[in-house]
Amino acid sequence: MTDIIVAPSILSSDFSKLGEEIKNLEKNGADWIHIDVMDGHFVPNITIGAPVVKSLRKVSKLPLDVHLMINSPEKYIKDFANAGADYITIHYESASHNTGNVIKMIKDCGIKAGLSIKPKTSPDVIKPYINDLDLILVMTVEPGFGGQKFMQNCAEKIKEIRKYSKDIIIEVDGGINEETAKICTNYGANALVAGNYIFSSNSIKEAITSLRQR
Ligand code: DX5
Ligand code: ZN
């Protein structure tokens, strides 16, 4: 198994100084920057769009991991790819019948494609797409807000998904801290998103390092 990728979520950062926050994450050992895009429809909250990703692209060389929690993701793939996203992850629940086409749109932009499932969605839905994907994102909270409690029964889906592919990146998102990270990596996850845990810690460096312990 490869090293664990730590992807801090900027949702918990101070948006008035986003550039500095990202440079600070880079300096303190982050592997990727996780960017939560919410539209107020697919999830109740509204966050940021492609222009912000474009600005962030200029301040960091780290891979930008864009998590689209939006309806009609096909309308926005090109915008986020042109803005500099390295990974674009869509939700199965927002694309459903169009999932294969949207994955292809992402790949046609020359970047990596991810598929995410919400807590109540079965891992079975991923199977038809597994060979076209670079990443699976398992939600361990209902998407929409940072700082929620980790749902262990959702993390158990990682075990099943790992059986589908030993190489694919399995990323987990929601309520990740030092303890819950271990649960997920034991199940076979190799990328961890963390917002509240990292940004509420006294030392970003120590928080990131603690997530890498197996
Ligand atoms: C939730 C987002 C997460 C969120 C994680 O919808 O997808 O990326 O920022 O936040 P924590 O780590 O605080 O649960
Ligand atoms: Zn996310």
Keywords:
alpha/beta; TIM Barrel; 8-stranded parallel beta sheet; 36% helix; 19% strand; binds D-xylitol-5-phosphate; binds zinc ion
Describe the structure.
This protein is an alpha/beta fold and about 210 residues long. The protein has one domain (about 5-210): TIM Barrel. Helices cover about 35% and strands about 20% of the residues. The protein contains 10 helices and 8 strands. It has an 8-stranded parallel sheet with strand order 1-8-7-6-5-4-3-2. Strand 3 (about 65-70), helix 3 and strand 4 form a beta-alpha-beta unit. Helix 2 (about 50-60) packs parallel to helix 3 and helix 8 (about 180-185) packs parallel to helix 10. The protein starts with a strand and ends with a helix. The mean pLDDT is about 95. Bound molecules: D-xylitol-5-phosphate and zinc ion (ZN). D-xylitol-5-phosphate binds next to strand 2, strand 8 and helix 9.
Mean pLDDT, rounded to whole units?
Answer: 97
| Helical residue percent band | 25-40%
| Structure class | alpha/beta
Order of helices and strands: EHEHEHEHHEEHHEHEHH
Regions with pLDDT < 50 over 5+ consecutive residues? none
CATH 4th-level superfamily: Aldolase class I
**Within the largest sheet, what's the order of strands?**
1-8-7-6-5-4-3-2
Separation of the first and last Cα atoms: 11 Å
Reading off the top of the CATH hierarchy, the class is best stated as Alpha Beta
For the biggest sheet, the summary is: 8 strands, parallel
Binned strand content: 15-25%
Identify the CATH architecture: Alpha-Beta Barrel
